[in-house]
């Protein structure tokens, strides 16, 4: 009995890798509906899907910002059945808030947060009626701990996390599962797009110090962080594949053990000053601290390879 998986945002990055990985499941356990806002961007997915296309993978249109498109997509599925929903579509935004318009910020909230809400308004009632289903949400470590110049993006992921925490309690009553996947940096289009947009930020709207922090500290470190800590979309797909095949999937799953120390700080200090202080020192006080922590994290990664099976895809 195949499970029906619906994934959003599959034209690139994590969504594309997820669709392909799940469609190529060794035991053929899944029928994947890989959805995207704009079908004309399906070329990469078609190529990557190979022989699974038309068998265990089908491509459909779905825009998470458009309720009609979500309904039309779900209506087109056999018996409207979705066993596993993977909410992946999302967008980033970096820079000082003084340089961003409320409209731009609303688009991020509308995609990352209300996109998930819209999907669930359409799919949750059916899952409740069947008393079965798994809701998987691609969140971020920034849903747990905010990071410099990611104010609105972090807020959108915090919104996702709070929403899911609240819903998870009700879901238990209906035998439904919810899992938040929390990647650290992943090298995808996302990262390039966000960086390119960041570079274009009109810094004339902000004071010199803020502009300097953004260009000379944040943007300079941006690529270094992705190249030293970044995972591949295939890594995230492998982690997510494990989560959807588990009998008792966890509510939260961080894909990058390098980030565990940072998110742990949050729980270590109930006053909340510790992570802010450490991030401040890492970013502003001296590059030395930053490099030292990177090396420390690399060491942790080296050590954790041995102890965390999920950390390393077994391909
Ligand atoms: P990506 O830009 O390659 O993929 C995002 C996808 O969402 C794109 O295909 C885009 O077209 C799609 N999308 C945007 N708006 C949409 C809409 N209204 N309807 C349907 N699709 C829409 O980037 P990615 O890294 O693969 O991002 C996927 C998810 O992973 C996002 O939710 C992102 O927040 C999350 N994430 C990314 C990183 C990272 O560093 N790349 C880290 C943590 C979490």
From TrEMBL:
GO CC, alphabetical: cytosol
Which positions does UniProt annotate for substrate binding?
140
- Highest taxon above the source species: Eukaryota
Per UniProt, the keywords (alphabetical) are: Lipid metabolism, Oxidoreductase
Catalytic residues, chain numbering: 153 (proton acceptor)
Which GO biological-process labels does this protein carry? estrogen biosynthetic process
GO molecular function ontology, one term from the record: estradiol 17-beta-dehydrogenase [NAD(P)+] activity
SUPFAM superfamilies named in the record: NAD(P)-binding Rossmann-fold domains
Sequence positions that bind NADP(+) = 9-37, 63, 157
Note the InterPro entries from the entry. Answer: 17beta_DH, NAD(P)-bd_dom_sf, Sc_DH/Rdtase_CS, SDR_fam
Family listed: Belongs to the short-chain dehydrogenases/reductases (SDR) family.
The name this protein goes by in its record: Retinol dehydrogenase
